Amino acid sequence: MSNKVAFTMKLKPNVVDEYKRRHDEIWPELVHLLQQHGISDYSIFLDEPSLTLFAVQKVSSNTTSSNEKLREDAIMQRWWKYMADLMETNPDHSPVTHELKLVFHMD
């Protein structure tokens, strides 16, 4: 069983091309790590005028319990640090995220 999770993040000015380049070259070990933690079908969209990123991903039902382990993983922390110069971040370099509430869905 899987669910969809959506959230926003925010880019700093003048970094859109670099953000896209880094994701075009996403580390295979990061992709594997995300998949191990039940994350799949992950897309990130950009609202260019506001520099707001909108992310949506499928997560398996056990993802919530492994989310803390994902946050503690060295690969994830290294990716956050690598991306920190492009985004609004928390003190641990993780991106500032705002979870979005589902208000409509159509199959």
How many structural domains in the coordinates? 1
CATH topology-level fold name: Alpha-Beta Plaits
Model regions low in confidence, pLDDT < 50 over at least 5 residues: none
Shape: globular
Question: Could you give the distance between the termini?
Answer: 16 Å
The fraction of residues in strands falls at 25-35%
Q: Give the number of helices.
A: 4
- Strand segment tally: 4
The assigned structural class equals alpha+beta
- What characterizes the major β-sheet? 4 strands, antiparallel
Radius of gyration: 14 Å
Name of the CATH architecture: 2-Layer Sandwich
Mean pLDDT: 93
Helix content: 25-40%
Give the neighbour order of strands across the main sheet: 2-3-1-4
Protein name: L-rhamnose mutarotase
Keywords: Carbohydrate metabolism, Cytoplasm, Isomerase, Rhamnose metabolism
GO molecular function: racemase and epimerase activity, acting on carbohydrates and derivatives
InterPro entries: Dimeric_a/b-barrel (IPR011008), L-rhamnose_mutarotase (IPR013448), Rham/fucose_mutarotase (IPR008000)
